[in-house]
UniProtKB/TrEMBL annotation:
Keywords: Immunoglobulin domain. SMART domains: IG, IGc1, IGc2. The keyword Oxidoreductase does not apply. It comes from the Eukaryota. This is Ig-like domain-containing protein. The keyword Repeat does not apply. It comes from Engystomops pustulosus (Tungara frog). InterPro entries: Ig-like_dom (IPR007110), Ig-like_dom_sf (IPR036179), Ig-like_fold (IPR013783), Ig/MHC_CS (IPR003006), Ig_C1-set (IPR003597), Ig_sub (IPR003599), Ig_sub2 (IPR003598), Immune_Resp_Modulators (IPR050380). Residues 70-166, 172-264, 296-391 form the Ig-like domain. PROSITE patterns: IG_LIKE, IG_MHC.
Length: 393
């Protein structure tokens, strides 16, 4: 049998056992005591008794409260599970037979005292003499998996209670890849940029050309900042000088969200000025209305926007290539967020038999700005999804 103060074992000379055997049942019963001076250092200290019997450990814990010292309640959150952008009130009740005027109360974010403007603090003395300490904050991605503490100092001893704000993980949304200049030229540097928004920590960013990774010194990712949705937003840019051999290469930005273990990507087919690749207008002309087929080579995985400058109130055409399927036996479902898109859908086979293409044309609404478009395909009981963050002018 052992006694502990916190994690420190109390010496045997301070412990006393009074164990007696019951002659009838031949079992033992009694008391186990420990004596020590009750000083302010023992306040809110856990004392633990550990008994080991035939390999089985039994524990009992007692929290010491010393008279004349404050006692802190656990911190409560209102609401308990807030949403991003929502006002949250944290409360800690301080009781005990001590004068509230002798207590110094402060709030901390992590291990650092709150700076001016990081929250609204209130301290109210109740009729029963207890003190209600509250902190009002606005939940943002900065609070994700973060903690707040209420610290009370009395007669040189500091007590602290910690609370973790319960906020959900949010995976990022990626914008389409933009390029400057709009039509890259062989031998001249171009900058490719993706906006990453609506996420909680942390993300990892990689850029690819076909299947080769770009070096880190070619990539610049800005520090995340809190956006209008109270989540993080940042941008990542690739600086790259294409050569003639890079004409029609596939550039890809891949973003991995650490918390959800999901990755998202955006693709861009590199069309060098003066090359032989198709423009957006020529791309649309690859569809032959009479044959129901598409001339090769429209074989870019993922959703592509055929409208050069998609705008609110205008027609927007999106296309999705699926390899190894045929249009007659493939089910295509287009969605904006969770809801089906109300538009004209045309599904066509590729002439070389390598797959099919689904194209949808619809009128873009104000609510479609920066929405996530999904093309869901089902073929031979296998379902796949492709995604696009639609950016409207």
């Amino acid at each position: 049998m052992f006694w502990y103060k916190g994690i420190t074992r109390i010496s045997e000379d301070k412990c006393r056992r009074n164990i007696l055997e019951d002659p009838e049942s031949r079992t033992f019963r009694g008391t186990i005591e420990v004596k020590f001076p009750a000083d302010p250092g023992c306040h809110e200290e856990d004392f633990r008794m550990e008994l080991i019997h035939y390999g089985k450990t039994i524990e009992r814990t007692f929290r010491m409260v010393v008279g004349g010292s404050p006692v802190l309640s656990e911190i409560t959150s209102d609401p308990r599970d807030p949403h991003y952008g929502q006002s949250v009130t944290l409360r800690c009740q301080v009781t005990g037979d001590c004068d509230p005027r002798d207590m110094a109360v402060k709030w901390l974010k992590g291990d650092k005292p709150l700076e001016k403007g990081e929250g609204a603090e209130k301290r109210i003395t109740e009729k029963d003499g207890s003190v209600s300490c509250s902190l009002q904050i606005t939940a943002t991605a900065l609070d994700h998996r973060g903690s707040y503490s209420c610290s009370v100092t009395h007669e040189g001893k500091t007590l602290r209670k910690k609370h973790y704000v319960h906020l959900p993980d949010k995976a990022p949304t990626l914008s389409a890849i933009t390029v400057r200049p709009e039509r890259p030229v062989s031998g001249k540097e171009a900058v490719f940029t993706v906006t990453i928004s609506g996420f909680t920590p942390d993300i990892r960013v990689k850029w690819y050309k076909d299947f080769s990774t770009f070096p880190r010194d070619a990539i610049t990712t800005s520090d995340p900042e809190i956006g209008q949705d109270f989540l993080f937003t940042c941008s990542t840019s690739l600086r790259f000088t294409p050569q003639d051999s890079d004409h029609e290469a596939l550039l890809r930005c891949e973003v991995t969200h650490t918390a959800s273990k999901k990755f998202h990507e955006q693709k861009y087919k590199l069309l060098l000025s003066g090359g032989t690749s198709t423009s957006a207008e020529e791309h649309r002309s690859l569809y032959t209305q009479d044959s129901g087929h598409v001339k090769p080579p429209v074989k870019l995985r993922g959703i592509r926007c055929l409208t050069e400058t998609p705008r609110v109130g205008g027609e927007v055409s999106l296309t999705c290539y699926v390899g190894g399927c045929d249009a007659d036996n493939t089910v295509f479902v287009w969605r904006k967020g969770m809801f089906p898109i109300n538009g004209k859908i045309q599904n066509q086979n590729l002439e070389d038999g390598s797959g099919c293409v689904s194209t949808i044309t619809f009128i873009a609404l104000e609510s479609d700005r920066d929405c996530r478009v999904t093309c869901e395909t089902t073929y031979n009981l296998e379902t796949r999804e492709e995604h696009l963050a639609l950016t409207l002018q």
